[in-house]
């Protein structure tokens, strides 16, 4: 919990400082006097004046944003000798540059963070697949447990992209689904033999389905994991039956098990529902290999209730880790390649974010994709625990999101101010004070609605409802 909170605060602090520094640096370069550089809102808990203009740098109590306050005649009396340094006295181009500098600083930061993550290197699961669920596109394409996906290309194209990890595969599949494009996958077995090509059909997928559970519905939810039991909880069904850590599951009820997911599915499905709606667990016969010997155990799962997309479900559990972590590969790039890949990934994530927001706006994508501070805090804590490179990648992703969101043409955001300047440039006159007040009120309503939806989604995810 402490790690999650500290990681969340560090994430917010870095992104807010960089965003506001973009505004501050360009304002100073344009000759505008900056009165205050604040991280957070509300009551000031720390302040210090610095620089030739005596700019006040402050840390405030509510760390969910920040602001740069500049000299401006619209906000108070400005001495005549300083009027040339007021924001409102600057040319249209300079005002626009100051406003856009914050989001661009976030996007530039993302390039550097992605680049740094590539330089450090990330240990990621190898692109070896678990068994796709029946009826999914991956299952229909003929993909099987243990298939190693080596490359991907648009359907009918000979321009193959080499895949280095499962993360690469999932990213490319998500992009293709957003474009409603089928793809070809070059596949071998886990030893790199028996190469073949399969076509994964994504063109018919509704873009509204490209959400947090999208890859599971495609059939690419998990990586291959050997069916070797990990931690066995003392007193749980598995331990009570005699199963031990390191047991390799060969079969359940006589049906062969080739990967850990098979164990999970069979245990979850070990539920008998009576005519009156009551449920009870069905005993399973486990055939395992232990120290070269084949042994059998009768295991009766315990039943648990779990919330799902279609309501609560009753599932079986045996309180044992079903498999060992799959094979991992170190993905690392040199300085130039890493930076180029960082720029490419920043661009791709930016485009994907804009397209997703646009589709949510017209109802072609689910608003469940909106995330708020609770989800960000949760992911920040998880990424920190996985290592520096993972955290830098997460920080880059949030930085891209912050940069893109601030460029949206909504009042209260940087993009809204840019819209005002576009209007001024086209008409030759600024937006009237009356219209500014109306647009500000409307912007507040839209932002509050977005924040409410994001917070609701956060709570729903934590409760397992999404």
Summarize the SSE layout with pairings.
Blueprint: H1 2-29, E1 34-50, E2 55-70, H2 92-120, E3 122-125, H3 137-140, E4 148-154, E5 161-162, H4 166-178, E6 183-188, E7 196-200, H5 214-218, H6 237-241, E8 248-252, E9 255-256, H7 260-268, E10 271-273, E11 279-281, E12 284-290, E13 293-299, E14 302-308, E15 311-317, E16 328-331, H8 335-361, H9 373-386, H10 388-406, H11 414-427, H12 433-462
Antiparallel strand pairs: 1-2, 3-16, 4-5, 4-6, 6-7, 8-9, 8-12, 10-11, 12-13, 14-15
Helix pairs in contact: 1-2, 1-9, 2-8, 2-10, 2-11, 8-10, 9-10
- Termini gap: 22 Å
Instruction: State the major sheet.
Output: 4 strands, antiparallel
**Considering DSSP H and I runs of 4 or more, what fraction of the residues is helical?**
40-55%
Number of helices: 12
Globally, the shape reads elongated
How many E-type strands? 16
Strand content: 15-25%
State Rg.
Answer: 27 Å
Structural classification: alpha+beta
What is the chain-wise order of helices and strands? HEEHEHEEHEEHHEEHEEEEEEEHHHHH
Q: How would you write the strand order of the largest sheet?
A: 5-4-6-7
Average pLDDT: 84
Q: Spans with pLDDT under 50 lasting ≥5 residues?
A: none
Features:
466 residues, alpha+beta, four-stranded antiparallel sheet, 12 helices, 16 strands
């Amino acid at each position: 919990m402490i790690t999650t909170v500290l990681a969340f605060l560090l994430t917010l602090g870095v992104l807010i400082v960089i965003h506001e520094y973009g505004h501050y640096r360009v304002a100073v370069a344009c000759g505008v006097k900056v009165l205050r550089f604040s991280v957070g809102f509300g009551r000031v808990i720390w302040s210090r004046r610095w620089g030739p203009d005596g700019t006040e740098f402050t840390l405030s109590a509510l760390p969910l944003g920040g602001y740069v306050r500049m000299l401006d005649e619209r906000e108070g009396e400005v001495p005549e000798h300083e009027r040339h340094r007021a924001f409102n006295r600057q040319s249209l181009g300079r005002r626009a540059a100051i406003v856009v500098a914050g989001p661009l600083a976030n996007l530039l930061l993302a390039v550097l963070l992605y680049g740094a993550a590539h330089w450090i290197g990330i240990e990621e699961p190898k692109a070896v697949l678990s068994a796709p669920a029946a009826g999914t596109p991956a299952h229909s394409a003929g993909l099987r447990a243990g298939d190693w996906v080596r490359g991907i290309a648009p359907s009918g194209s000979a321009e193959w992209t080499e895949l280095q990890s499962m993360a690469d595969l999932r990213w490319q599949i998500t992009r293709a689904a957003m474009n409603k494009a089928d793809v070809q996958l070059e596949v071998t077995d886990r030893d790199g033999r028996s190469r073949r090509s399969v076509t994964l059909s994504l063109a018919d997928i509704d873009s509204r389905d490209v959400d947090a559970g999208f890859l599971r519905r495609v059939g690419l939810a998990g990586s291959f994991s050997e069916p070797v039991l990990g931690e066995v909880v003392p007193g749980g069904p598995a331990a009570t039956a005699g199963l031990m850590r390191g047991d390799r599951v060969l079969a359940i009820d006589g049906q062969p098990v080739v990967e850990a997911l098979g164990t999970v599915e069979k245990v979850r499905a070990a539920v008998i529902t009576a005519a009156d709606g009551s449920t009870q667990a069905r005993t399973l016969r486990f055939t395992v290999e232990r120290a070269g010997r084949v042994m059998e155990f009768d295991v009766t799962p315990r039943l648990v209730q779990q919330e799902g997309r279609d309501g609560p479900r009753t599932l079986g559990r045996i309180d044992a880790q079903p498999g060992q972590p799959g094979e991992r590969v170190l993905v690392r790039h040199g300085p130039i390649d890493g930076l180029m890949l960082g720029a490419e990934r920043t661009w791709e994530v930016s485009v994907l974010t804009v397209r997703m927001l646009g589709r949510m706006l017209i109802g072609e994508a689910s608003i469940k994709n909106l995330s708020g501070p609770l989800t960000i805090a949760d992911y920040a804590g998880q990424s920190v625990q996985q290592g520096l490179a993972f955290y830098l990648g997460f920080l880059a992703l949030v930085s891209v999101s912050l940069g893109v969101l601030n460029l949206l043409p909504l009042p209260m955001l940087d993009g809204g101010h840019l819209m005002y300047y576009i209007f001024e440039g086209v008409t030759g006159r600024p937006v009237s004070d009356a219209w500014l007040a109306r647009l500000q009120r409307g912007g507040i309503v839209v932002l509050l609605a977005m924040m409410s939806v994001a917070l609701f989604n956060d709570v729903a995810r934590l409760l397992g409802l999404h």
